[in-house]
Amino acid sequence: MERQYHDNLIVSSAPHMVSPVDTTKVMGTVLLALAPAFLVGIYQFGYRAAVMTIVCIIACVAFEWLFNAALKRKQTVSDLSAALTGVLIAFNVPSSLPYWMAVIGCFVAIVIVKQVFGGIGQNLVNPAVTARIVLFISFATEMTTWPIPRGAGAVDATTGPTPLGILSEGGGKLPSNLDMFLGNIGGCIGEVSALALLIGGIFLIWTKVISPIIPVCFLGTVFVLALIIPGQDPIFHLCAGGLMLGAFFCATDYVTSPIMPMGKVIFGIGCGIFTILIRVYGSYPEGVSFAILLMNILTPHIDNFCISRAYKKGGGK
Amino acid sequence: MSQQKKHLQSIRVSHEKHTAECETQVMPIPDTVCISMSQHIGAPCKPLVKKGDYVKVGQPIGDTDAFVSAPIHSSVSGTVTGVEMIRSVAGGEDQAIVIETDKKQEAWEEIKPPTVENREDFVKAVRASGAVGLGGAAFPTHIKYNPQNLDEVDTLIVNGAECEPFITSDHRLMLENTQDIIDGAVLVMEQLGLSKGYIGIEENKPDAIALLDKMLAEQNHPEIKTVTLRARYPQGAERVLVYEITGKTMDAGVLPAQLGVILSNVTTIAFIGQYFKTGMPLISKRITVDGSAVADPKNILVPIGTRIADIVAFCGGYKAEPKKILMGGPMMGRAIYSDRVPLVKNNNAILAFAGPQSIVAEETGCINCGRCHKACPFKLLPTAFAEAYDNKDAERLNALQVNQCMECGSCAYVCPAKRPLGFINKLSKALVKEEASK
């Protein structure tokens, strides 16, 4: 009996089986985790919150696609990371911001911060956080004009201050901690509801997309420092500004945070210290973005420090 | 002991144990077999027969004087039609003896149970049996059973952890050859003077654990205990198993004997048990045949030297054009270039894939998520290896302890960017070795 042989089989290195989780699924899960905050944003600030988010997604994806096409690189828009950056930028601006300004933020995030450094995985700092800072410095008035949220009840004005603005500059009554927790306060589209962000963050930890170390150390440090510094309310600080959004969704960005657990501890504590220092002693009312940016820059050094400690002779266990 | 609180990092992989209920079938003798002279770690054997010789079942046809080696026996009766060079699955060339079978399966006259009076006899008999590590490593068993520090060794660990997806041959062995396992373990412990015996089995094989527990109790062997392990990957890796059962950390390059342990695969132990009863050397192997391209997946007992194509033909043939065929499991098995290669002693599965499972996933950029680091049983940092390897920095690789890597492939399995981290680890280790020899 003459046997037919198959002589052209695929030869590759083990393992020959890979987990179904890929980058697209990871990014998709993070997008899903942002859904509660998105819904609260639409409820509080109306249709403009939704349009802003869509504009930012389209702008980020388009910039990434165009950049890749111009440089004849492999297209990476399907990994959803550009879409995620778009959502995070929208969440980090007031809903009243002119769209073209938000698009400039998207350009900064995708082209300047991410693509010129080599695309996904190569950026040194978080694109969305950097875009927020660039917008904040470039368009100070528009970026600090806050529409009144629907949940704040009927008021005559169309804009009002954020709680951190009141704390920093006075000029109003601080909202209750419950309103702050639920999101009945002025602020950026995606940052107002601590509850919605907490739900998303816990979902990410539960699905093991992020490690709890950075958010716990970040929030914990803010809480403890606010407890120690006289005249500060720790609960207020946890719920105010971009802390929840930053702690769960920006500081945990894989690319720009340390890989080793000990590095994550250092990173989280560092973010917390800088946030409180800027909020309480700095001239800006909010410090989360600056804190994350500073720690992003320190990340390679934190990683090197932790790696050389962990893999000393006999280490690594 | 089974209630270890601390575990090494491990990962969940899809078990895919489709053939767990498939009782082992004996495959009929094929028309020809091709028996490789390189079936163990160490020096290859030299052929003892030449073209035209008539050989019988169990007759030695290859051996060598080299220390790290084990003899090779004919699995069939028939006429040697040639001693050829064949392309090995590793890419090199091996000598192989091709035998045209007469299907009479006449046993060699000198087959008889070995007589053992002392430990030296025992080790000699183990060598003569052709036994090698049948879990996959193929390290000659007689060397393992003759450690220099035997007086410090008190524990036998039998590895019944079959953590590779798809493979169920060890599971079937534990259900079908339970007595051989007990006999083998008792014999090895007696001959080597070991006081404690553990059979480590994962919790996804409760029937095997129950059967062994029952028979060990009936036959009054309190010195041997089963240990229920977590059904995670890579539970069956030597260094992981030693840690899970004894709590002792085993670094790369350390022999189990240095930690007071002799560790053998359950198939090896069962074979030893059988051999001392019958005297028939290692000539056949129980394997799992499965995968999306195989028509009728099953567990079969195959003569060593049977070509993969013949094995698949017995399992209903290919139901789809095979694109990738693995010797061993999908996590650590080797992709073979052709199905004309023959079965060797340490194979425990043939998996043939047609569809998406045969395609190598496209690599995307590393997002520094750290899943590889979290998956590694030894908490190594594969992303850092990859960076150092790109820079051809052997010193950095050494500092990162790349040699602790046992190539289990967990890092590459979990990587969302589908980077070939397992492959990079192998290349990195080779680079370190190369630099060290300069």
From TrEMBL, chain A:
InterPro entries attached to this UniProt entry: NqrB/RnfD (IPR004338), RnfD_bac (IPR011303)
Cellular localization per UniProt: Cell membrane
Enzyme Commission number(s) of this protein: 7.-.-.-
Enzyme class: translocase
PTM annotation (FMN phosphoryl threonine): residues: 162
Domain of life of the native organism: Bacteria
Spans through the membrane: 26-43, 49-67, 99-117, 181-206, 213-229, 235-255, 262-282
Cofactor: FMN
Membrane topology according to the record: Multi-pass membrane protein
Keywords: Cell membrane, Electron transport, Flavoprotein, FMN, Membrane, Phosphoprotein, Translocase, Transmembrane, Transmembrane helix, Transport
One Pfam family, short name: NQR2_RnfD_RnfE
The protein's role, per its UniProt record: Part of a membrane-bound complex that couples electron transfer with translocation of ions across the membrane.
Entry similarity comment: Belongs to the NqrB/RnfD family.
Assembly and oligomerization: The complex is composed of six subunits: RnfA, RnfB, RnfC, RnfD, RnfE and RnfG.
Xref: PANTHER family: ELECTRON TRANSPORT COMPLEX PROTEIN RNFD (PTHR30578), ION-TRANSLOCATING OXIDOREDUCTASE COMPLEX SUBUNIT D (PTHR30578:SF0)
NCBIfam families according to UniProt: rnfD
Protein's UniProt name: Ion-translocating oxidoreductase complex subunit D
UniProt source species: Anaerovorax odorimutans
UniProtKB/TrEMBL annotation, chain B:
Family of the protein in this entry: Belongs to the 4Fe4S bacterial-type ferredoxin family. RnfC subfamily.
Matching HAMAP family: RsxC_RnfC
Subcellular localization: Cell membrane
Pfam families: Complex1_51K, Fer4_10, RnfC_N, SLBB
Membrane disposition: Peripheral membrane protein
Cofactor info, note text: Binds 2 [4Fe-4S] clusters per subunit.
Keyword flag Transport: yes
Record's function text: Part of a membrane-bound complex that couples electron transfer with translocation of ions across the membrane.
Source organism: Anaerovorax odorimutans
PANTHER family recorded: ION-TRANSLOCATING OXIDOREDUCTASE COMPLEX SUBUNIT C
Co-factor requirement: [4Fe-4S] cluster
Identification of the protein by name: Ion-translocating oxidoreductase complex subunit C
Membrane among keywords: yes
Complex and partners: The complex is composed of six subunits: RnfA, RnfB, RnfC, RnfD, RnfE and RnfG.
